TrEMBL record:
Key word Hydrolase present: yes
Keywords: Hydrolase
Natural source organism: Providencia rettgeri
Key word Hydrolase present: yes
Gene name of the record: amiB_1
Molecular function via GO: N-acetylmuramoyl-L-alanine amidase activity
Assigned EC number: 3.5.1.28
Protein name: N-acetylmuramoyl-L-alanine amidase AmiB
Length: 75
């Protein structure tokens, strides 16, 4: 059971607020992981980018699809 299923009968404003909080948290965690990966890659050799870049993909806001935030950051 996902967040969309749990909130399907709830107030639409509450549902949107919870989804926005989840999405924002996942973005922050994903960014932190990407920064750590880049730090480790820099120890191995030269890399093109020093900071993660974010790709804004609207489909990620839908509660019906599983989200893999590791694919939203480009190195």
């Amino acid at each position: 059971m996902g967040a969309g299923d749990a909130l399907s009968g709830a107030d639409p404003y509450l549902s949107q607020a919870v989804l926005d909080l989840q999405f924002g948290h996942s973005q922050r965690v994903g960014y932190d992981v990407a920064v750590k990966v880049i730090e480790q890659l820099r120890k191995v050799g030269n890399i093109h980018k020093r900071t993660p870049e974010h790709a804004s993909l609207g489909v990620l806001r839908s509660p019906r699809y599983p989200i893999d935030f590791s694919r939203n950051w480009f190195y």
